[in-house]
Amino acid sequence: MPLRNPVDDLRQIAFLLERANEASYRVRAFRGAATALGALDPADVAARAEAGTLTELPGVGDVTARCVAESLAGEEPVYLRRLLDTAGSDVDESAMELRKALRGDCHAHSDWSDGGSSIEEMVVAAIDLGHDYLVLTDHSPRLTVARGLTADRLRAQLDVVAALNETLSSTGVDFRLLTGIEVDILADGSLDQEDDLLAQLDVVVGSIHSGLRDDSGPMTRRMLAAVANPHLDILGHCTGRKLGGDPDGTKGDRAHRGGRSRPPSSFDAKAVFTACAAHGKAVEINCRPDRLDPPKRLLRQAYELGCLFSVDTDAHAPGQLDWLDNGCGRAAACGVTPDRIVNTWPADQLLSWTATHS
Description:
This protein has 358 residues and is α/β, with parallel strands linked by helices.
């Protein structure tokens, strides 16, 4: 029986837990163990497993040690097998076709802001999922609760992305990490980052994170100003809603574990979506189980008004990059076709599109 890699098994367990939106402490346990064991020589790991001393290592507990022992014995760890057995998808055929057409993800976070993993870990997960590209969209400065990037930190991140892309290219990996930001749309509709920096980025996602209960008039004017901004490419999670236990009143959508619900913001959807279509901006179909934004009635309206879309995970951890099914199912249910979804395009076509806005 061929030997398994216990570190890979631990990482896959963490990935599946993230995809299932399980409690973060479980994810940390497996990622922490993978990191601890990944720093050791495989022979040392095997010797410790044989001696029963794996749990003496910081970050390795009884459950993770048992998984390692099973993996080293050439067996699929029981914990992993159970996750795989319950990881079936209920995405129908049209949604599956749409999912196959997606080439990348235009909204993802790293530990530079409020994500839980490094840029490199997010890239590895995206490559493993078969993506051609991933847009790194950490938060902007005023969202201090999410450690938003100042202009200087964003410039430093651009250097990191360039170096990482150079490494990928030199090793023959056909994948691109695209530069980006999830920039806050401020109260007056301006964008929370320096114009010259926004102009340098490959993709700009603009989202509202404050004043979500404002009246419809001010909120509409705020969104229209942002959509008209030449630097904005994608309008992120447009209603700002957070979901409780039964999104859209159907039991088929998965809800956020333990989060508080928040009603959608009030705005003139027809005016905003008409502006998006007129300016060639995309409306995000946010795949997070606690968002699933926009609601289906608004998603249908945006499609009927001629909008482009971007199906994005808004991932804050590697396993969450596999949430694209959530958005594909909703898009298919609302009649959205692949030709209207910008991340079905090759990277060069996507960048040509964003370049027309600046």
